[in-house]
Amino acid sequence: MRRTQLSLYEARRIALAAQGFDKERPQGPPDARHFRRALNTLRLLQLDYVNVLTPAHFLVLWSRLGAYDRARFQRFVYGRREFTEQWAHEASIVPVSSWPLLAYRRSTHQMHKNNPLRRIRNRTAYLDAVLRQVQRDGALTANDLPPVPGPRRKPGDWHRSIPRWALEYHFARGNLAVADRRPNFQRVYDLPERVLPVEHLSQSVGKNEAQRRLLRIAATALGIATLHDLADYFRMSPRETAPLLADLVDEGHVTTVSIDGWKQPAYLSAHARLPRSIAGASLLSPFDPVVWFRPRAERLFGFHYRIEIYVPSAQRKWGYYVLPFRLGAEIVARVDLKADRKAGRLCVLGVHEETGTDRGACVESMAQELRELANWLGLDDIRVTRHNDLSRQLADLA
Per-residue b/e over 275-285, b at no fewer than 16 CB within 10 Å? Predict the structure, then answer.
């Protein structure tokens, strides 16, 4: 596609198509082919295990594939050696081909100043002993390591045991890889050579070349993006990214375009598609790449979005766990959801439409999406808190 000027609506369609929303959900139960296509389209799936509704990364796949077997997806990710966990955007599932591209980041990883490992005696000897146990005994979890007394917790400290901190450190440094996840989501660690294909372990890619490749991946995954959008995808520095992006322009991997209403130049991937329209509807995870970089979501969709999990209840504007609702190429509403598993109920605690939304189309599509979500989560009932006209209409349909 050779364009130098795009409308905002065209940019939205390109962005959504790059993320797989130009394709219909599978008609039958999603299988390995669908999982592979979705993950290769995203190029990374940010992991988040907040379970107010369902872990957020499961929802990212559901938005694109509809109802799927989560256990089957877990077996696909951890059993086929095509994908692995790594620090990418945040902790993420990535193709195994990304392992050597992220080596420069692993090699420079340093413990955070508040890491409790810093405050235990004989830290180096302890970390070496942990690694030797994995080498000797094979894959293990933090619970398989002997307990170690750690320093007294301070307010705000993460609730991790010392063994878990040690395993996480070795994972971040690349000494260990994630071999599996237990049903309670606990990581199982093993040596990389027992988890990853040898061809990716043996590759050596310098930092500059690795960042160039990551930037190309980000451009393909986003379709259309600014410098800061592209840098954010793999958490790279915009300052370091800028000269690499100029190289990609010179090489024809991306082209510079202007988008109506955008102050910054945009970069269009050579692989970008511009479908005539984007159909369907979907609830989006708070950590979906379509909305996770909040400046881009606002610039692209006119959608101002913030997570309010850590905001005191009285100060929240929209709710605790609010999901954007996409209808076609627009984000038309936001919904505060909670799964009450004990009662078997999907709770709609709040729903708010965006300015200019066609309420009739919105509420009908949203009701259908909520019914499908409840079915997928194994919830028998939907309870809508009636607090405005949109919620009252939704309650009548859901």
Answer: eeebebbbbbb
